[in-house]
């Protein structure tokens, strides 16, 4: 009986409906007009869309168990490993750094805009280093391992990534004056949108969302981020506002003529939990073991993925530069021919 009760609690927790059930039990529907009440209504949105996505795939006979199996296994594993770790890190950073804030903000609309811009900057910093520092990539790569895009991917994370991300994001926001209540509101909104942008083509074929594609980061932009196509590598690090991607030159629109290839560039078994979860850590350990000298061993930890002590680098920057050079060379003969045709 206890096992069934625990399973039931896990299910309603995953669906995000525990607060709504409590409201129905008490009959106090006025709670829905409060901020927490609004959050309780929004929380089930992404799980509902995930179930809709799965049901739609089953109805159209496009459902593949391997598209959802690994994110589900990772979600279950993380529930056992890190249930309270991320929350604890956020509380720790607030308690440690709040007294050093540059100034104090309040729950005003203009401070909300300021707070969101700062939050996006902190998210950009965490996400950028997650791709540019090998050790952090080992934590982040689990999220990029799935070879298809659907809402279950939002639950596929290495258990240490959330605490690492929240330390960076919370620390920057608190030091820049974003007070905790404002920060939690922004976290909720950004977390909900950050989950939604993983929606698959099965549910929303064109992830550009019309005119929104020119204003915010849409599922289309995030599909680009999850791609291993050379042109798309290490782009679109922001979550909702694309301001910092544009500032730092990492913004990239999805090209209609380019088919997205999801996953990570190394050879791996996408159906192996151990390879998806620990594969990058094992690869880092092997590179460090074979590297000569302590300096090279440490460089493997802090340099970008693909860096090699031999000089034969295969980083995203190198791969993208080679791709662009090859594309440019391929275009030159066509341009010359077009010019010649015009002269004739």
From TrEMBL:
The chain crosses the membrane at residues 38-59, 80-97, 109-129. One of its GO terms (molecular function) is glyceryl-ether monooxygenase activity. Keywords: Lipid metabolism, Membrane, Oxidoreductase, Transmembrane, Transmembrane helix. It is a multi-pass membrane protein. It is found in: Endomembrane system. The keyword Transmembrane applies. InterPro entries: Fatty_acid_hydroxylase (IPR006694), Sterol_desaturase/TMEM195 (IPR051689). GO terms for cellular component: endomembrane system; membrane. Residues 113-250 form the Fatty acid hydroxylase domain. Pfam families: FA_hydroxylase. It comes from the Bacteria. One of its GO terms (biological process) is lipid biosynthetic process. PANTHER family: ALKYLGLYCEROL MONOOXYGENASE, STEROL DESATURASE-RELATED PROTEIN. This is Sterol desaturase/sphingolipid hydroxylase, fatty acid hydroxylase superfamily.
């Amino acid at each position: 009986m206890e096992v069934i009760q625990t399973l039931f609690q896990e299910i309603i927790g995953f669906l995000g409906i525990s607060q709504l059930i409590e409201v129905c039990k008490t009959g106090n529907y006025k709670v829905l007009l409060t901020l927490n009440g609004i959050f309780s209504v929004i929380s089930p949105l992404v799980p509902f869309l995930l179930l809709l996505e799965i049901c739609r795939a089953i109805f159209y006979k496009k459902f593949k168990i391997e598209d959802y199996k690994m994110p589900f296994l990772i979600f279950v594993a993380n529930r056992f490993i890190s249930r309270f770790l991320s929350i604890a890190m956020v509380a720790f950073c607030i308690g440690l750094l709040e007294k050093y804030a540059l100034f104090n903000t309040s729950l005003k609309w203009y401070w909300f805009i300021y707070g969101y811009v700062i939050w996006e900057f902190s998210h950009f910093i965490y996400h950028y280093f997650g791709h540019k520092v090998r050790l952090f990539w080992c934590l982040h790569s689990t999220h990029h391992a799935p070879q298809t895009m659907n809402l279950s991917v939002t639950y596929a994370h290495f258990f240490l990534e959330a605490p690492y991300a929240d330390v960076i994001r919370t620390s920057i926001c608190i030091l820049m004056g974003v007070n905790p209540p404002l920060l939690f509101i922004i976290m909720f909104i950004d977390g909900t949108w950050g989950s939604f942008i993983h929606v698959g083509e099965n549910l929303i074929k064109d992830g550009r969302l019309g005119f929104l594609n020119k204003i915010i980061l849409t599922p289309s932009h995030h599909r680009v981020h999850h791609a291993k196509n050379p042109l798309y590598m290490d782009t679109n690090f922001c979550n909702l506002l694309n301001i910092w991607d544009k500032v730092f030159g990492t913004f990239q629109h999805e090209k209609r003529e380019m088919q997205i290839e999801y996953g990570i560039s190394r050879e791996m078994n996408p159906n192996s939990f151990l390879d998806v979860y620990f594969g990058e850590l094992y690869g880092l350990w092997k590179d460090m073991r074979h590297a000569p000298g302590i300096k090279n061993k440490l460089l493997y930890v802090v340099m970008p993925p693909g860096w090699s002590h031999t000089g034969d680098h295969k980083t995203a920057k190198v791969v993208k530069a080679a791709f662009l050079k090859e594309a440019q060379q391929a275009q030159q003969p066509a341009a010359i021919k077009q010019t010649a045709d015009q002269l004739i």
